[in-house]
Fold Trehalose-6-phosphate synthase.
Amino acid sequence: MTVRSSFVVVANRLPVDEITTSEGRQWRPSPGGLVTALHPVLAQYRGTWVGWSGGVGEAPEPFDLEGIRLHPVPLSADELERYYEGQSNATIWPLYHDAVETPVFKRRWREAYRTVNARFAEAAAEVAAEGATVWVQDYQLQLVPAMLRELRPDLRIGFFLHIPFPPIELFMQMPLRAEVLRGLLGADLVGFQQRLAAQNFVRLARHLLGLRYEGQTIIVDGRRVKAGAFPISIDVAEMERMAADPQVQARAKQIRAELGDPKTVVLGVDRLDYTKGIERRLKAFRELLADGKLSVPDAVMVQVATPSRERVEHYQALRVKVEREVGRINGEFGRVGVPAVHYLHQSYSRSELAALYCAADVMMVTPLRDGMNLVAKEYVASRADTGGALVLSEFAGAATELRQAFLCNPHDPDGVKDALLRAVHVDKVEARRRMRIMQRHLRAHDVGQWARSFLNELGVPEAT
Ligand code: GDG
């Protein structure tokens, strides 16, 4: 019998990974910001999380893990290719990120997106109790709110978009545009990372569907749909704890030693994604070496580029470009035993990342467009010693909050070089002052506060 919940989260992925142990197949929680933020609410309301389990073919039976009910939705290999890699990651992802790569439009991808969104909506309708709250997450599931409302008009529905919402001119390119907009308008509350994104959405509703709005509220068939900005954050206390761990501190020292104890360690940590501006950052570093403003071995760079979406063409092409640039820099400026750039196309544990953050004098976060960018917030939270300096793109959502970073326009190579040099040479007192202000901000705006403020606006009683 299906267990029905008064609080349901719907996201592309379940917050678990399947592992094979000596006892057979098992589930292991995959800790992420979203599950940390939602765990208290899910636990209080005996909530259910609806999502894809990560394997193709038949879905596993629903199961409980750490107090949360998990309800897997199946995807076939074809759907994975069309709905996920295609429509989600080769159409919508680039389009919503200022088309920094050319979006690819394909009919069969759109059809699969519709089919899979309908499946998620049906699963949510099945597990939601009468009058329940359902919180739908992100760009893979934009049709779900309207589909779900059609099936279950009794529900309270929220939607949060983790990535930017583009200006009208760009959104209008999408063949599925009206359907996506109507899909989102099925929610009672549509949340974005930025105020500008919420404004884009409200204006689009008028432009494309001729809908009336009052402030940030759109009127749809007499129903009121609110749009708003809810900038996401991280579990600040957990990040601070991890960074303060003596083992992490010792590992940070060891990393610096392994790098040859340079004066300046410059760090980048990103999924290998073309929105993250990895090439621009490498180019800025190369030009500073060529200009003689930085030199090896005094300054070295570490770039972690976590493998991501490897079957999507844009990503394969990016990998080639990044690796060519790394090769060029090391060829020109490295020495035997001392590369200029340590490039790591690998995934690391959370504690290894924390150690890298603690080891870095300058953190470079230079996306061409980013909904928020949690790496920037993690770096700031991990520097309780108030050491370090953050170079941050103005095009990351995080730049709205982290005003004391060395802000730059990633499209302007001289601007990036200038910000990097200022961060390298900032005096300690000034660097500390900047870090302290940003840390204070983050402590008051962590991921728990993010979830609470969204759910309060949606009218869900506060979780205890
Ligand atoms: C989307 C939006 C928005 C990275 N490498 C490893 C690893 N990571 C972790 C980081 C960070 C997370 O992944 C990446 O988060 P970002 O925010 O930087 O970027 P997206 O993945 O693009 O996320 C973004 C976010 O949604 C939330 O709303 O901020 O704008 O694009 O937490 O630490 N974690 C581990 N190993 C790695 O190698 N364990």
Remarks:
- The CA atoms of residues 260 and 337 lie 9 Å apart.
- The first strand starts at residue 5 and ends at 13.
